[in-house]
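Dear all,

This email documents one entry for the complex benchmark we are building for the journal club exercise. For each entry we list the sequence lines for every component of the assembly. Then comes the predicted three-dimensional structure of the complex as a token string, followed by one or two observations. Please use this as the template for your own entries, and keep the labels exactly as they appear.
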Amino acid sequence: MINEQNYEAWFLDFLEGRLSEARQQALQDFLARHPHLRDELEQMQMIYLEPELHRIPKDDLKAPAIELPLLDRLLIAELEGDLTPRERRRLQALMQRSPVVSRTRRLYQMVRLHPEDLSFPAKDRLKRRPVLRFNYKVYAAAAALVLAAVLLFLWRPFGPGGSAPAVAHVPAVEQLPPVKPGFSDAPNSPGTTLSATGGVAGADSLPVHSRTSSGGVVVSPGLADEVKRPVHRVPPFHEAPVPSPDRTPAVVMAPAHTPATSPRVTLPSGSPKEGGARTPHTGITHLARAQPAQTLSSLTEEAAQMALTETALPVEPVVFPPSEDDSALLEAFAQRHRQTTAGNPLPQRDFRVENEGENTGLRKAFRLLSLLPPVNSQSPVAALPKVALAAIETTTGLPTQFKRVQTEDVARLHVRIGPIAFSRVTYK
Amino acid sequence: MTVEEYNRTVDLWADRLYRFAVKLCKQDEHLARDFVQEAFLRLWQRHKDVQAPAARAYLFTSINRLLIDHWRKHRRMDLYDTVPDQNITEDPAARTSKLLDVALTQLPDIQRIVVLLRDYESLTYAEIGQMTGLSEAQVKVYIYRARRALKNFLTAKGISA
């Protein structure tokens, strides 16, 4: 029975037409007794859902219709090869009935498009060359082998006097200048820290203790350790030549960063040992006879360092014939520079490099520079190693920048040497 | 795809892609050249992922997207109605061909794409749909509408069978 607790359900049933006549009468009686609920019923009647508001656009779901006249649709279907057998019979019937159909059919045959005889003008530029990946590890291993061979050649376990292995007590300086990475243009450059394995006749025997001016003692590693490490050989004092004034200082390749493991010789105080032809400047030893070893070992150290620290990029191998003339490389670089700077060449002397010894790094640097394209070219060229750039910077006095940007798809190499900028983009 | 396969793809498809692009660019060959280069650059960037048989679809899909993006950016800067009729030769076949070029430029972009893919590359509706992102039915409708529009253009220009 309807009452004030359940009348909403009765209202709903009434609105949905589910009340029997007896119940409808009961509802009317209830409303007569409670006239204030009649308004509520009327309000409920006003609540309904508008189906039109929620209509799904069915036209979008349907397959699109080809709203063309029958004749056009049949003729295009024939052109496209879409005619069913029934449609084909129908089309033939239409064609027999009217010549207009045949004319329209011929017109449709004309609207088939035919490609022109066009060729892409720069097809070769789209092609890619296979990229040979250069493994720095291999390079480092080869460098290590060369280094070992050089060390074996240079290392003399016994001094000229045939005594036990000796290491020079090098004359001291009051205070060692800080380690300066980069190049030492030997005779007059203070601040070069040298590693030494060379011997002097009559020198003290191992282990070598070098006393610093401050009283500290630096224990040099044993010779066995020296052989294992890339070292710079310092010739005995009596062998050290006095630089002649007419001689241009040699450019010596040196590592950009002095390896932490390199044995360091601190120059002790006191007068030089016998035969030690000291140079006038304090604490610096000439490298004249040691240049090949120093140069090569520096390079190999640098190569090994790069192998450890740099991400290997795909580079093209560059061959450096040992007999190649450095002057040609320098000229190539200067010529390239003149081209790039458009008639504003730097003086030729800026490129003068005294290539004594095996300045492989410089040779390589200039060789690479002569191969590099102008600014922003995307031609693949060999990457410039940092050691080569350091050589350029030191020998030409031009500032250099070297930047690699490597993303997932593209490796960009930006090199700037003075006013010349090079970039290389390698797409993976 | 190896480098050799990529280079072979260049040999196979560069010219056809270029012809297709030239038509879509309304005879602007410089623009078409840029699009072709960009399409091949994209292919190269993905050449390790794209198999050689799929290179053609990848290229045409790329160039379609490039063109559609270009049109969206440069809407209404096209050459509609700028091809003068008086330049069209009187040789009937050549005249019809030239008129078709003009008619093609007046088609909606998507119709122009599908009809060119159909005629230049003889692709199926499904292949065109795959490249353009349309259903087969939509491709078919667009091709039919394009054909009729081309025919009506020729008729309007006095071409008769």
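Observations: Chain A has four domains: 7-48, 60-110, 129-308, 313-427. The mean pLDDT of chain A is 56.
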